[in-house]
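Troubleshooting log. The previous run stalled partway through. Resubmitting the same two chains, unchanged.
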Amino acid sequence: MKLIQGNEAVALAAAAAGCDFYAGYPITPATEIMEQMARILPPQGGVFIQMEDELSAAAAVIGAAWGGARAMTATSGPGFSLMQEHIGYAAMTQTPCVFVDSQRGGPSTGLPTLPAQGEVMQSRFGSHGDRVAIVLTASSVLSAYEMTARAFDLAETYRQPVVVLLDAVLSHMRENVDLPEIQPVPRVVPELGEDFQPFGDSPFVPFGEGHRTVVTGLAHDETGLPKTAGGKATERLLRALEARLARDAREITYYRAHALEGAKVVLLSYGITARAAREAVDVLRGEGIAAGLLDLQTIWPFPDWLVQEVAERADAILVPELNLGQLVIPVQAAVAGRCRVAPLGRADGNLFTPEEIAQAARALLAAEETGGVLHG
Amino acid sequence: MASVGQDLTEYLRQEMMPTVWCPGCGHGIIAQGIATALQQIGADLDQVVVVGGIGCSGRTPFYMNTGAMHTTHGRALAFATGLKLARPRLTVVVTMGDGDALAIGGNHFIHAARRNIDLTVVLYNNSIYGMTGGQSAPTTPQGSRSTTTPLGSIEPNFDATVLAQAAGATFVARSTTFDFQEMPQLIARAIRHPGFSVVEVLSQCPTYYGRLNRLGEAPEMLQWERDRTLPVPDGPLPEITREDLVGKQPIGIFREEIRPEYTARYRELCAAAGGTYNA
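Second attempt completed without errors. Output:
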């Protein structure tokens, strides 16, 4: 059992998952991840470099991945905005790498030391053009550790950038944690036959391993070469990845359920807000209200199937989150009238208290009974 | 010793030919210079990566029969920094345009130079943005025309070789596409140099810069390159007040010195911490 900080847990998990390259740029509230990596990596022979900005940090991570490293960076809102172009580049070039974003109040410079959950949609759609996104969240120091390690595995398995969303409070809070064992997904460089194609379903082969790969953000097919008819190839590769993630949905959807059995009002939350929601469930249960919690740790690809299963058995779903209503949008789309869905948002840099969430849940149920309309 | 005129077939990626470059463009001469330099140093092409940015120059990696990384606008050096640090055995050549390296990528250019990381920049300077159709660049000579300076540019233009030296690059040279015999030798020396090396190559863009400034077609522009440059002996940049340099750009090697290189220093740092970098 160890008392560790959320940001420290991310660094320790990265190292345990085989991360041997970190490039970053200081920003509150993510900086401690970088400071930890500056200490952890050199004694292991890994690379740490402080770059000149977040654009170059993201670029160096991708370059390092093509040099064979398991690479990551960490940042917060403004830096995450600057990294968007390169997250898209990593997606287009099927580059395994990990981006951690500790969310703080926004927009713009916003509230550097206060928590928010404003990058739910940015982490999915923030880079220009369309793509498939894999985004994990964490609601405790232990889950920050676990999700960071999972992020490296998913990056490796799907050859994609994977985002881990934290927030200012989780980054800086300390909890007693028993760090679990981590078994990184091994990387096997295959025999490179004449017909080896570096993209599509192929395993990731870095530079210097015998194949003179062409890596480009231009539309390309499985050979990597940009072709004039590249648009069709791009869509084919994107749809294949999308299908693969859909097929594996149950394995890659991480979540925690609390008192979900028989719950009539379900609090669907994630990240730091899920902690207050869990407490709210206990308060409501104490009052005889059948409340339950679904704490989503995989938010993208959005687990429609799981939310639909919950919606089939519930009367109402309340979605507390620290924004003006982001994850509630795919929740509403997935539920599609199976039960009522209401948002509960705040974007003032404060956390919800359990009572605020419980109160919103009671109001939702009351509106349910009287058939009234509840405005979130 | 290999020289211009040798068969470069194995150094070029045949399936990507022909290039996108316009007739008369100087970039093919520079790409040939890089291929010739790789031949000259006997590079193992499996261990070479050519990294490019965005723009006409950024297409070079596609034509090299090496590892190739065509990155984002201005950021080629940041990608290359990560790549080199992760696998220092690789020979990494970075091709950038003048706008790519000095406008959008200026920050990365000075910081890569400051670190003295063992990368070789071949800076294609055609005085203009070619790929987007002839807009002004930080290198567009003051007073000359582009589609965004139709009345003539009022901005002073950058001298990339002075900037690179000030920022800490340890090998800095300039050549032109007119000097197609000497330019590959400079690139080869830059690649061999253990540190951050920059070879600026003045190139002609008859399609935009030449047309907008009435400089004629490629042959006239090559002569214009010859006439506006002056070879100088190796060593520090001569005083620009020298009479024979008025209105001219010196060409040659302006700096070649050995200072601790970044991956070498990083290896020492790891060793001091008990680690083995890139075992």
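Takeaways: Residues 193 and 253 of chain A are 35 Å apart (CA to CA). The radius of gyration of chain A is 21 Å.
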